[in-house]
């Protein structure tokens, strides 16, 4: 029995028994209306709220798109949650529980009488009722098949074009589908190599779930098929009725006059492709060991092996004792730590590493942004070129663009009932998934046999609610990022026994010279009305081995090797469907313990949070491999059996995984916060950046204070989140130390002293990036914010580059960028994405400055850097860089882009909902906040 199956059955025997006759009665072919299910009791009693801007409706006909381009009009419910979401920036200071619905939707079950906008019944066993307030679909079925069919039909109504885009992104076919814009080329080149599959591979994953996950696996695939059937039913109806998304016309798929053309049918394997994109964006963890090895080599080259390793480890911060923790009661969960004596580490020879080439046989505009606009019909000219910059602008998706190796986002604040005014736990939580129009997720309520929930699901995999609320509980997630991906160094060989080279396409697998498998995608495109990119094509090629996908070539000890990336969730992109099925099942989730068991069946790396009327709880999910003793997970390891994951079988990519009890989990702690920070003591950081200062400190400090005061309410916890959402981490956490160094002696330069005073005033007022008045589009402390934005990268360089030297400084900044301000165009999701301050040198600066100031530091850097440890020298370096920053004009600090003119500070920070379809949205005030968010307090339970 494969280890994966053992894990499932140990956790879910009780669940299978609980399903009982429900599974037997839920035939996928059944269309006969069953008896009306028992009424669902809503135990939240009006105290559950949610929001997902800009609006529920994500489909637009050609007429809708042309109207938006010509007159700025919007389809109904495509933007009616945007102003409420934006309004919390100005409205949170006076927030009360009664005012929450000024900024959130009422997330109660059902639709009140008089609030019904429409009722659709695509089959006689399901209805889709949409409410007047937001147009959210409330799906109610009398059979399991009908319920899921309705969910698929509603997904087609709200996200048909988006789902089509994402199945093609997952399959590495975006340019052939939507056009050859340079951003489209980049996107498929980022995602496809992470999850390259043949059609047989995708089908095998469907079959694996069906045959290896027991009764729930069979039900999951039946549900998925019903969901796909519902999508296809809407696809056919909208095509015949000519109310399909207008993007199909603009990209040349369907003729606007004759209606000739086709929207390709959806298949079960499309859901696997979409799941691979979603999981790759938000649920990955680890990897990057080759870059880590390069920075380690750079440190060893500068300081020698022993001292260089010590310096590197102090920046790597695997187990920083000062890091903010989600589980802060001292409980330890050892995982992926540094071994006392490492075995099998495979560091490359200096200068030998080269990236594996991906693109071959370019023709025409491939690799360029050359345009050749078509002659568009007069009626379509307003929409010409809407995708010239790509259907998904460069870097907009987490896991793509310059921040591709970084994953994260989302936050959670939960307080135990012991510290709340009502005596029940309160949660304010949600995923931070970037901003798109339409959003990647869609709101829905699903009620049917074995399913009772409201919340969000990623479009295309919405058979179940993925984050939301049940009858008497709510749950959400943040990206965890623990190490579930390793890098192996495979020895290259030649089948005839000749000497291998770095270009060899065979490798040693357990003593046998084995051919690498070649996977390919050939894409071609031509200009359309939507995308003017000139005709072109290329071939993407990856090499697959039993140790994963080849990413680099190098030599180790003079011998040629290939470095491969192997993640536990490869070939298991949709296995997590079992956990989501459980979370939606009121017969399974009845308390915190059953919630944690359900979450443990989700294979991607997430932090899961839960609240009912009695308990707040937490569980960290993920397929954490059991590594061989002595293997260092932070660095590449030799591809030998002695260093493989325990129980590793490459056929289906299965292994032994750490058991439930070894994952960080907790119930009833006084409070929980998460903003992609370190989970618990002993749970080693999978990458750089989990140190003494982290953006989660913005939450932890505020929530700890609320808990100390007691009487926490939904409004007060929401205020804490909203305050953190407009606060500059550098200003709140680092500026006090910077000012202490600077003020250690009088600043005699009057102009420079005035600059320091501006920073002091901003810090005293809360270090916020917030409008002086609603709609002013100007920050209250605009000049101080500009100075900080200009100063931070300069001060980091002035503090660290002299001591580290150019080579090591640049190697470490490749591991972790120094800054991620709201105005930055880099980071995990590019500019205008809301999420900020996740990745940066905040912790390094903090530890170094405290050391220079003579303050205690736990887990210090191996050396002092600012001024070489001398306070006066450090002060001089900071003042010199500050003087440079103060002189930098706003037009250089904020250089402008397609959305903003140079020098427009507020605009540079602002959130832009990146159009994935033909409808654009207005920019709104920056908030570092979940995209979808719930505010919940259950006063009762079943």
Described by strand count, sense and barrel closure, the largest sheet is:
10 strands, mixed
Percent helix range: 25-40%
Question: What general form does the structure show?
Answer: globular
Radius of gyration: 27 Å
Note the beta-strand portion. Answer: 15-25%
Which spans have pLDDT < 50 for at least 5 consecutive residues?
1-35, 400-407
Helical segment count: 24
Q: Please give the alpha-carbon distance between the first and last residues.
A: 38 Å
Instruction: Count the beta strands.
Output: 30
On the 0 to 100 scale, the average pLDDT is: 93
Instruction: Name the strands of the widest sheet in spatial order.
Output: 3-4-5-12-13-14-15-23-24-26
């Amino acid at each position: 029995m494969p280890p994966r199956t053992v894990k499932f059955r140990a956790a879910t025997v009780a669940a299978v028994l609980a399903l009982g006759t429900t599974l037997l009665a839920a035939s996928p072919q059944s269309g006969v209306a069953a008896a009306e299910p028992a009424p669902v009791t809503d135990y939240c009693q009006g105290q559950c709220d949610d929001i997902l801007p800009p609006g529920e409706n994500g489909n637009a006909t050609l007429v809708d798109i042309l109207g938006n381009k010509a007159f700025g009009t919007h389809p109904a419910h495509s933007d009616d949650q945007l102003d409420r979401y934006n309004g919390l920036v100005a409205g949170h200071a006076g927030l009360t529980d009664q005012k929450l619905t000024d900024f959130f939707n009422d997330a109660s079950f059902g639709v009140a009488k008089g609030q019904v906008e429409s009722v659709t019944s695509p089959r006689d066993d399901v209805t889709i009722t949409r409410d007047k307030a937001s147009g959210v679909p409330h799906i109610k079925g009398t059979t399991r098949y009908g319920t899921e069919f309705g969910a698929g039909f509603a997904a087609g109504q709200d996200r048909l074009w988006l789902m089509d885009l994402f199945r093609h992104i997952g399959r590495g076919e975006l340019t052939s589908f939507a056009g050859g814009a340079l951003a489209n080329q980049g996107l498929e080149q980022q995602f496809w190599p992470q999850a390259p599959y043949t059609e047989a591979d995708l089908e095998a994953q469907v079959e694996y779930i069906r045959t290896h996950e027991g009764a729930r696996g069979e039900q999951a695939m039946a549900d998925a098929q019903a969901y796909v059937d519902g999508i296809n039913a809407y696809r056919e109806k909208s095509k015949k009725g000519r109310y399909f998304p207008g993007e199909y016309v603009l990209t040349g798929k369907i003729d606007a006059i004759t209606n000739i053309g086709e929207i390709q049918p959806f298949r079960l394997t499309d859901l696997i492709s979409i799941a691979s994109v979603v999981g790759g964006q938000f649920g990955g963890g680890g990897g990057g060991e080759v870059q880590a090895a390069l920075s380690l080599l750079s440190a060893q080259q500068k300081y020698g092996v022993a001292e260089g390793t010590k310096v590197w480890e102090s920046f790597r911060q695997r187990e920083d004792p000062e890091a903010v923790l989600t589980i802060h009661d001292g409980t330890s969960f050892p995982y992926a730590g540094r071994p006392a004596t490492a075995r099998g580490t495979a560091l490359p020879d200096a200068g030998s590493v080269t990236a594996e080439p991906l693109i071959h046989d370019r023709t025409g505009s491939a690799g360029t942004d050359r345009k050749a606009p078509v002659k568009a019909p007069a009626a379509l000219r307003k929409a010409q070129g809407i995708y010239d910059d790509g259907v998904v602008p460069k870097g907009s998706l987490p896991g793509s663009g310059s921040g591709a190796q970084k994953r994260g986002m989302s936050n959670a604040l939960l307080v135990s009932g012991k510290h709340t005014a009502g005596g029940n736990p309160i949660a304010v939580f949600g995923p931070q998934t970037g901003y798109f129009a339409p959003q990647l997720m869609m709101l829905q309520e699903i009620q049917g046999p074995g399913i009772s929930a409201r919340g969000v699901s990623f479009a295309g995999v919405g058979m179940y609610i993925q984050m939301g609320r049940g009858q008497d509980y709510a749950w959400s997630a943040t990206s965890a990022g623990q190490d579930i991906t390793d890098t192996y160094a495979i020895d290259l060989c030649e089948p005839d026994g000749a000497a291998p080279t770095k270009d060899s396409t065979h490798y040693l697998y357990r003593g046998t010279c084995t051919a690498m498998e070649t996977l390919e995608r050939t894409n071609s495109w031509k200009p359309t009305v939507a995308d003017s990119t000139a005709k072109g094509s290329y071939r993407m090629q990856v090499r697959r081995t039993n140790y994963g996908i080849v990413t680099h070539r190098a030599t180790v000890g003079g011998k040629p090797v290939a470095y491969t990336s192997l993640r536990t969730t490869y070939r298991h992109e949709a296995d997590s469907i079992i956990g989501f099925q459980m979370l939606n099942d009121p017969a399974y989730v009845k308390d915190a313990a059953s919630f944690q068991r359900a979450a443990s069946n989700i294979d991607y790396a997430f932090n899961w949070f839960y609240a009912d009327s009695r308990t707040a709880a937490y569980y960290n999910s993920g397929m954490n491999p059991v590594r061989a003793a002595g293997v260092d997970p932070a660095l590449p390891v030799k591809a030998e059996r002695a260093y493989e994951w325990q129980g590793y079988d490459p056929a289906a990519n299965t292994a032994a995984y750490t058991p439930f009890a070894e994952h960080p989990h907790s119930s009833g702690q006084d409070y929980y916060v998460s903003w992609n920070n370190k989970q618990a003591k002993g749970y080693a950081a999978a990458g750089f950046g989990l140190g003494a200062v982290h953006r989660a400190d913005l939450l932890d400090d505020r929530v700890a204070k609320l808990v100390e005061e007691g009487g926490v309410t939904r409004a007060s916890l929401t205020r804490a989140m909203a305050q953190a959402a407009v606060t500059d981490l550098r200003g709140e956490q680092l500026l006090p130390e910077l000012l202490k160094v600077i003020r250690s002696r009088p600043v005699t330069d009057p102009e420079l002293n005035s600059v320091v005073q501006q920073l002091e005033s901003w810090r005293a007022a809360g270090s916020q990036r917030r409008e002086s008045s609603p709609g002013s589009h100007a920050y209250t402390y605009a000049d101080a914010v500009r100075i900080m934005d200009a100063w931070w990268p300069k001060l980091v360089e002035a503090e660290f580059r002299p001591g580290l030297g150019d080579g090591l400084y640049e190697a470490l900044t490749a591991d972790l960028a120094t800054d991620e301000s709201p105005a930055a165009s880099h980071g995990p999701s590019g500019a205008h994405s809301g999420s900020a301050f996740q990745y940066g040198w905040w912790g390094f600066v903090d530890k170094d400055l405290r050391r220079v100031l003579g303050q205690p530091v736990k887990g210090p850097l191996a050396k002092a850097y600012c001024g070489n440890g001398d306070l006066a020298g450090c002060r001089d370096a900071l003042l010199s860089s500050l003087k440079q920053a103060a002189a930098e004009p706003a037009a250089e600090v904020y250089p402008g882009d397609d959305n903003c003119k140079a020098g427009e500070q507020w605009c540079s920070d602002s959130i832009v909902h990146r159009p994935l379809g033909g409808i654009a949205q207005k920019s709104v005030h920056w908030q570092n906040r979940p995209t979808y968010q719930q505010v919940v307090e259950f006063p009762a339970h079943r």
